[in-house]
TrEMBL record:
A Pfam short name: Annexin
PANTHER family assigned to the protein according to its UniProt record, in alphabetical order: ANNEXIN, ANNEXIN A4
Transmembrane residue ranges: none
The UniProt record lists the keyword Calcium: yes
Domain notes: A pair of annexin repeats may form one binding site for calcium and phospholipid.
Organism encoding this protein: Huso huso
Keywords, ordered alphabetically: Annexin, Calcium, Calcium/phospholipid-binding, Repeat
Organism domain of life: Eukaryota
Annotated family: Belongs to the annexin family.
InterPro entries: Annexin (IPR001464), Annexin_repeat (IPR018502), Annexin_repeat_CS (IPR018252), Annexin_sf (IPR037104), ANX5 (IPR002392)
Database matches in Gene3D superfamilies: Annexin
Protein name: Annexin
Length: 381
């Protein structure tokens, strides 16, 4: 995902009247190879969020990842889609199938253009109109799909923090799975949308070593090189062993220092060396030495470093297994990953659990909620 910084799409819409030209000329396009342009204040690209005509860097309507089930819709016409959505909400009742057909088969970037075209044609905000028409989990999926990726993550984090209680699982899922660029984009989106610092809000709702791990992740300062220092890998493994299995009590800071700072390739080597030293897998040791949210956070970090699609496959499985469904997890993963790596998540799900993700969703959900999730999931394979 390309870094999100500066004004997000909603802010651009609010400010469009101040621009010397309207955005309409940029947004009224039909050919899939057309480009819109956007460059943030510091020169970085902002995928799928149109800006002023003076910007000079092309941004495609393509998906933000290469392994998603949602891809760029060829022959895309924002005005036509906006009219179809308007028709689906006019009169008595709502044509949910039309909403599903359009929104589940357009990329995030394309949905932003549909939102703009709808406002231009109808004079109302598409998101507000859909909220007035829809309810329940189906509404939550649609609301998520209409947000740029970092804005959606910021929205989920805000919901996890505000009000009584904290959804620590949501904080872990999102913060443990981002690279530096993605994390900075979420932090910027959170500030822009809510006028608050994400770190401050996280700190106000968490405590102890769990809080320190989240704050470390929020610095977005992990080494992202490919360099593996063999001697350092051995030392890191030794430090974690001596901080946990080899002593009474656990020095969690040693785990934080290694797991939240080192690059992925180096850490994979560290995990190998740890196995040699301790005769245990690092995940097993974390389970033995820690508990609660801290255990969950460190496990999520390790699992995402090893195999991120497998991590999300496990989250999906746990959200649906047994009685009842944890819809918040199911929705968040399906919405946030459908354009990035859902193909890999599906493959991992079948490998790990012997059943397809499609079949799980079909058996666990119902109605329009099930239908839109199945579209995001893709074929039953």
């Amino acid at each position: 995902m390309v870094e999100y910084a500066g004004a997000c799409w909603s802010e651009i819409v609010r400010q469009r009247a101040r621009l010397p030209h309207t955005l309409s000329s940029l947004l009224d396009w039909t050919h899939p190879n057309r480009r819109i342009f956007n460059r943030t204040g510091d020169g970085t690209l902002c995928t799928g969020i149109p800006s002023s005509p003076e910007a000079d860097t092309p941004v495609t309507m393509a998906a933000i990842g290469s392994r998603g089930t949602v891809t760029e819709f060829r022959g895309f016409n924002a005005d036509e889609d906006a009219q179809k959505l308007r028709k689906g909400m006019k009169g008595v009742g709502t044509d949910e199938s039309a909403i599903i057909e359009i929104l589940s088969k357009r990329t995030i970037a394309q949905r932003q253009l549909i939102k703009q075209a709808f406002k231009k044609a109808v004079g109302k905000d598409l998101l507000d109109e859909l909220k007035g028409e829809l309810t329940g989990n189906f509404e939550k999926v649609v609301v998520g799909l209409l947000m740029p990726s970092p804005v959606y993550s910021a929205y989920e984090l805000r919901n996890a923090i505000k009000g009584a209680g904290t959804d620590e699982g949501c904080l872990i899922d999102i913060l443990a799975s981002q690279n530096n660029q993605e994390m900075r984009a979420i932090i910027a989106a959170y500030k822009n949308e809510y006028g608050k610092d994400l770190e401050d809000d996280v700190c106000s709702d968490t405590s102890g070593m769990f809080q320190r791990v989240l704050v470390s992740l929020l610095t977005a300062n992990r080494d992202e090189s490919d360099r593996v220092d063999q001697a350092q890998a051995v030392q890191d493994a030794k430090d974690m062993f001596e901080a946990g299995e080899a002593c009474w009590g656990t020095d969690e800071v040693k785990f934080l220092t290694v797991l939240c700072i080192r690059n992925r390739k180096h850490l994979l080597r560290v995990f190998e060396e740890y196995q040699k030293i301790s005769n245990r897998d690092i995940e097993e040791s974390i389970k033995r030495e820690m508990s609660g949210n801290l255990e969950d956070a460190f496990l999520a970090i390790v699992k995402c470093l090893r195999n991120k699609p497998a991590f999300f496959a496990e989250r999906l499985y746990k959200s649906m297994k047994g009685l009842g469904t944890t819809d918040s997890i199911l929705i968040r993963v399906m919405v946030s990953r459908c354009e990035i790596d859902m193909l890999d998540i599906k493959a991992q799900f079948q490998k790990m659990y012997g059943k397809t993700l499609y079949s799980f969703i079909k058996g666990d959900c119902s109605g329009d909620y099930r239908n839109i999730l199945l579209q995001l999931c893709g074929s039953d394979s």
